[in-house]
Structures are given as C-alpha cells and as structure tokens.
Design a protein that fits this description.
heterodimer; A: mainly alpha; three-stranded antiparallel beta sheet; 15 helices; B: alpha+beta; 24 helices; 24 strands; 39% helix
Chain lengths: 384, 654
Amino acid sequence: MTYTSMETNLDQTFDPNRTSSYEEEFKWLKWIPLILEIVILSIGMMNLLSATGVEDKSLGLWKNQAVSIGLGTVVTLILQFPHYSFLSRLAYLIYIGNMGLLIAVLAFGKSSLGAKRWINLGGFSLQPSELMKLSMVIFLAKYFENKNTTQGMKLTDLIVPSLFVVIPVSFIIVQPDLGTAMIILLVYGSMLLFLKIQPKILLLLSVVAAISLPVVYNYGLKPYQRQRIVTFIDPMSDPKGAGYNSIQSMIAVGSGQLWGKGFKKGTQAHLNFLPEHHTDFIFSVFSEEWGFIGCSVLLLLYGLFIMSGLSVAYQSNDKFASLLAFGIVSIFFWHVFVNMGMVMGMLPIVGVPLPFMSYGGSALLTAMSGVAILVNIANKKYMF
Amino acid sequence: MAFIGNEEQIRFLQERFRFVYGILFIGLGVLLSRMVYLQVFNGDQMRQYAEENRIKRVKIPAPRGMVFDRHGKLLVDNRPAFNVLITPQYLNESGRQKEVLSKLSSLIHLPVIEIEKRLQKSRSQAAFMPVVIKDNLTRDEVAELETWKIDMPGVEVEMAISRSNLSQDVGSNLYGYISKVSQPELPVLNKAASRKYQLDDYVGKSGLEKEFEEQLRGVDGSELVEVDALGRSIEPSKRKDRVLAQAREEPFIPGKNLVLSVDQDLQMAAVRGFGEKNGGLIALDPRNGEVLAMVSRPSFDPADFSRGIEQDLWAKLIADDNHPLRDKTIQDHYSPGSTFKTITAIAALEEGVIDQDTTFNCGGSISLGSRKVHCWKKEGHGSVNVVSALTHSCDVFFYRVAQKLKSVDDIAKYAMHLGLGRKTGIELGREVPGLIPTEAWKQKRFNVPWSPGETLYVAIGQSFVLTTTIQLANAYAALVNGGTLFKPHVVRSIQSEEGKTLKEFTTQVLDKTKLKPETLKLVTDGLWGVVNMPGGTAYSQHIPGMEFAGKTGTVQVVTQKADKIYQKCENLRYAQRHHGVFVGYAPIQNPSIVVAVVAEHACSGSHGAAPIAREVIKTYLQKYYPDLYSDRAIQDRKQLEREKAKRAKTNQGE
C-alpha cells in the first residue's frame, strides 16, 4: 500500500455522510470491551460462589468481591468523564506516586503468607504492585509517544526505558511478588516488540537471555523457586511436596472432561485438594465443574475481549492512546496466558490471578480501570 | 482523517498488528490444545485420579499450651476426644444406607432415627462435607468402629482435642474455657489476631484461656493423607507402591505453657472448705502479690465447652442464679461489712481522732437524730477501745469514730490507698471496680450533698461501700506488710513446651502508704483477738497451736425492718440470707498468706466464711511451715509447754 493510496482512503472516510452513519450504526461497538468484561465478571462471580460458598456459608469472600466490583464500577464511571489525555499529562506523576506506594509497602506493609504486598488504607488493603502494571503502561506510552521507532530501536534506545522498568520491578521482586514482576516484564517486552526492535539487536538480546538463564537459575532464584521449576519439568519428582499443587490442579482440570462435574460439584476444590483455589487456582475450579465446553467458551470470551481491546488500539488516531490501549491489552493477555498455563501444568507456578475470575480486590480494580481506559479511548477519538 | 501526532508512526504501528494477532492466536491456540489434551484425551484418566486415588491435605491442630501450678503440678491439659462422622455422598454412593446406619447405630448406641435426624439437619451443605454424628466416643466405641469401618462406607472416626481441667470444676473460673470460633466472631477475631483463625479453630473465651490466648495457642500443622474413593484414609501398609506413598507433613508448633502462682493443694482446700456453699475465695502472698488460691463456687467443667457445649447445658449455666460462669473473686462486688472496720480504725488512728486509750461505751445502740442505730449485739459491748472493738466487731465504737472524723473522705482516703474501690489490675478480664463513696462522688452521682449520718454506715462497711474479694485480700495484704500495695498476679511465667522459661512476670507495686507502727500494732492486735481471744467473733475457728488472725463480716442482702434485725438468719429464704465475709492472715509474725472469702448467703462471717479460710490457712501452714505447724511439731510444742509449766510449778513448790 503506497502513501498516496492511503490518502485517497482518507478522503473517502472524510465524506461527512458516510462517516456519521457508519459511526451511528456501530456506536455500540465501542462498548464491547466493557460488555465482555461484564459477561466474564458474571461468570467469575458465579464460579467464586462455588469456590468459596461451600465452606463459608456466610459468603464473606464473595461479598468482599462484590464490594470490589462496586468500587470498580465507580472507578469505571469516573474514568469516562475526563479525556484520556489527562493520563498523558499525569503519566510521570502517576509513575512516581506508584513508586512511592511500593516503597511504602516495603517500609510498613502488612504481610500475608510470608510476602509483604499490602498496605492498609483505612478500611481496605491495597496492593500497589497490582496498580504498577497500569502505571507502567501509562508511563511507557507517554515515553514512546514522541520517539520514532519506525526504523527499529537500537540498543541505546532501550537503556533509559529499561531503567524505568527495572526499578519498580526490583521493588516488586523484593516483596516478593514474582508473578507481577514477570507480567510487567512481559508487557514491557511486548510493547518493545510492538514498537519494533532492530532484528540484529533482537537476536543479540535472545542470545544473551539464553546464556544468562542458567546463571539466573543457579544464583538468582531462591531454593523454593528452583524447586518449582524442577517440579514443573517433572511434577512426579515430589508429588506430595512441591509438585502437589501442579498435579492436583491438572487433575482438577482434566477430571472436568467434556461436560464438567456441574456447579458446586467439583471434588478437587471442595475436598481441599487445591489450596488457594479461590485466587490463583480459580480456573481449576471452573474447569473441573464446567469441563471442556465451559473452558473453551471462557477462552473464546477472553479471546474476543482481547481482540476488542486490540481494535481500540488499532483504530485510535493518537499514538499515545494506541500504545496505552495496546499495553493494557497485553496485560490481560499475559495474565490469561500465564494463569491458565500454570493451572494446566504448562508453566511453573507463579502467583498470577485470572482477570475477572480470581478473588482479589486490587487486581480486580486494576483490571476494571484498564477496561475503563480502553472504553474512554474508544469513545474519545475523533473518528471510528 | 485527523491524526494526533505523527501520522507516519501511527500507520507504522497499525502495520504491526498483523504480527500482534499472530502471537495472540498462537497463545490462545496453545491454551486450547492443552485443554483438549487434558480434558478430552486424558479426561477419563484424570477423572479416575480425582475419584480413586486422592491425596488430601488434612489439618493437624496444634495442642494448646498447658497450665501448671507453682509446684509444677499439671492443672489444665488437652485430652484426645473421638467423634464419628458420616460423609453423605459416600454413604449414598454405596447404596447400603440402611445397612450401614443400623450397624453404626448398634456400635455407638444411638438410635437410627437420631442418626438420620443429624444427617437431615446438614442436608443444606454439600454432600461430600462430613457430618458429625456423635462426639466424645468411648474408647470401646472407637475400637469397635475402627474394626467395622471398612464395612461402613462414608463412616469416619475423627480425633479432636478436648480441653480439660484435671480437677474438673476446681479453679475453672480462673482458667476459663475455650470454644470453637463461630462465623460471626471470625472477622472480629481476625482483625486483632496476629495469626488468623479459621472456622472451628478453638479460642479462649474467659479467664486465663482468653487473656493468654496468644501464648496458649499453637500453630497448626498439616499432613497429606492418601484417601480412597470413599474418603477413608488408606493404612500405610495397604498403600499402593506409588511415588505418592510418602507423606510430607508440616509439623505443628504447640502452644506455650503457663506456670501459675496458685498452689493446687490450697485450691482443693478452698473447695473442701466451701462444700455446698457458694462464693469466692482468694489467697494472696502479702510479700509480693502472688495469687496462691483463687476459687469461685459454683463452677463449671471446661471440658463441656471444648467439645461444643450442649444447648441445654449452656442454657442451664446461663440461667443459674448462682452464676457458675462468673468469677466471684473479681467479677462480683459485695458490701465488705465489718471487714471494713479495719480500714475505719486505720483512718481514725492515722488522722489522730482516737488513740489506744480512747474508749467508748456501747449500750447496744446510739441515737442519730430521731433514729436509733443498732449494734449487732442487742445488749451492747460495754466499754470498748479500738483493739476490743475490732475483736468483738462493736458497731457502736465505729459509729462514734465516724462522728469524730471530719468527713467520710477521711475513710475513703485510706480505703483508696489500700486499693479498695478500684480494679486491682490482675491479669484477668472483666474485673469490676467496686465503690468507695466520697462527698464529691455523692454530689456528682445523686446531686445531693453527703449527710453526716451516712458516714456511720460507711464506717461499718455498709451503705454505698462495695468491694471485690480480691480487693479485700489485697488491702489486708498491704496492711500486714506495712503499707505496700501490690498488683496481684497469678501467672508467674510463660514456658516453652520443653519447660524453658520464656518470660517471667515480676511483682509490681501500685501504692505505698506510710502507716504508723502504732497503728499497725493496734489493728493487728485487734485482728489477732478476733480468732484467738475468747469472745472474739471468730474464736470458734481458732486452731490450738496454729495461730492466725482475721476479721469477720456479715452483710445483709436485703434491708431488714427494725423488728427483724435480730431474727435468726437461717429462717430466711436462701436468697435473703446474709453473706458471710472473712479476711484472715497467717502467720501472726511476718505473714505470708492473706485469705479473703465471701460465702454467699452463709448467714455469718464467723460460721459461714471463716471456716473456709481456716481450711486454706491450715493447709498452707502445714505445707509451708512443716517444722512449726505439722501435727507432730504442734504436739511437741504442747509437750514442751506442759513440761515447762510443770517445772514452774515444781519450782514454786520449793
């Protein structure tokens, strides 16, 4: 496609009659990410009812999650009013503020299950590392807005942004919240690839990564983290110890078979074979009870959701907005991929929640804010 | 098309989407094929794994810390208790419900109807959640069940821990009880706790169990148990030789132990002393404030709570007029009655309104305006000084003293210095403060000025004066040790499971009053006379060769009309009978035990309360001063005295 032919296309799109009718007709399309969010959230709440409601008759966790949804809805509404460009103006401030929270967590955060991830804000606890995913994407969108990367980035172009990524990531690793750190790195990598890196640099980086992997494995990881990788490769090496979760989770998914065991009938989850089954392993509860049919419907919904987000990024006429939308979508993609991969025994166990399905207020709030920004971008651009 | 920023760059990015969609579809494709692999191709096998060969993570509750007395005698322990459970799903799947239930019924001696009723009650919960059918099984029942279990699908025996006070209800108000955490309590508990609770965990609800919950509670462990298709754990010998056979446990950490300052022998003596009577007794070491005995009657058996208390038993405990759940030594206040006269005497002597030579004539009553205020002894005591007034507990003497004092605040000052009318601060919950009235207090409370006549009643421990048993003991402890008021404490140390001391609690001084030696001499002389002088109010309780001192008190529960004042108490209805109070100490020189007793509705201090204190003091002296007070030592001493007297006689004869 040549530049001139594009221009003719533009002229056509500028035809006032066509544009307006087209926009009128497909106005609702802009809301698709939100609609899919609501669908998946509903499935998530139903599933959480099964995951937590059997042992806990008072539905304490379920109600907490409902409150988080309420809060997320308020945030979604609020985020529809300003033009998204305020995020561009505040990008560096948001980044600095989120860094402050991360430091605060280390200074006086509260710990749970041996990790220090939460800070107490009056009535509820906040997990700043969750928010950092979004802050990071906003920051990177702003940073690359005015960088021309059409010729591919050189090594020197990568130094500054990498520095800004590595600082919060190292804070998050110290907590330790490896899952979130990994997601941020994956999102950063996706954005770099999206923006284009020079092929030879990409090759160089891959070689360096391949060489440094064994070094990191031997010296960079704690024994329990190494253990997870060993058991990932061979879960039967320690079936009652480190491999336990992985095996039980795979059994849960597989035993769902084609049609599933039915709502609230999953034995793996309810007989406590699966620890943490309402958070990171929520997908195993779902797949046990709804089987392959349910799982593929859920996967389809996630696929459509991600595609609708990508189309927002694609159709935006603002580079900042496009990068921002792409970044947000890649957060969702990696969450889904890593979580499901982990639950189905394809990836080592890392704490990554499944968006809209896992229990957890901060993660839900981050996810809902992400969708709110996508919808804002879709609605605020000058043309469809 | 309007672009913001560089159009060329945006076009460039849009080009990149082909590549992005490529990655997306590869990612989703990988996930989908894994689903197909696990659920469609391997689903049968996975389902079989899930149903047939299970490894279950089972919680192993950590034992709670134990409680010991000052000599290392075990007071509170954990005893295993066995429950039988049914998992409805497994029972139903077996298709032999009738057969299994009738077999079970004969083994645990519970009618089938009753078992079905319990299953029915839990119908709303998921079928694979076990239901408790009977708790606290006997050893024989457990043995029978273990033998027949294999023939009864869905039936399981579970071990639970029962908290038990080894001497049943002795001291239970002090030790307290534990019970299972209920749903509404959970969020409240977890807000404050450093380690989270789960439903059905145990938590201390009263007494030391509650105050030292954090220390007594252990950290639960877990165990991975291989169970078969019916949820029964597989015996290690029958386990298939698989990689799964080796269990990995997370060990539990037992709770820490408490070592108390109480002496179990004194606790038992107190209960012996009470017999059928109700009330509270507390014994303190006046040299350091340690609690030597602390008993409240009636009491309860904590074991009834830890297994989950029966509804009707709970209702009975709550409705009981004698309040078995309340610790009467700290959670109930009473008028101190005549035991308060000691305080009035101290106030008068210290303020200088009387001295050792001051005498008043007691004619059985005095006139107060138009009214007559009576002494407990109708015919009066004649001429009395402060020592004989205490010995005979003459009311009129103290009425006169009250009239001489400037105001009721003079009495209040000394009462408060001795710790009366406020919480002692012992490390137990729900202590009540009691009350020592002052002029300012009455003005504030009733908006009415103090009337001087009321001081008369305060002087003999009636009117508004309210004290707890522990306050009385502590006040007398401060009196006999020369004026140092200690904060009473009952936990000496916290120990690890192996018996290593982790924390020791030291004595704390609350107040120091400088009392004149003459004051102490006169008051203690009076208290000595109460027990050891013929005519003393508790002379009937004296033990030859084993001297102790004290003060009696008899407290009217309901105000009697003038003509009924001298009516025989035993003829009244139980709830209207007087409370008996006694505070005593021993030995006379350098006292090391102070005992305060309130015997509810026991009619008098001398016959109702003093015998209980006497039992404790006797046990104490014989145990701690064997060379002075053992039966043998007393006999030897008597023998020596007789010989001395004989020799004196012989000498006289010469």
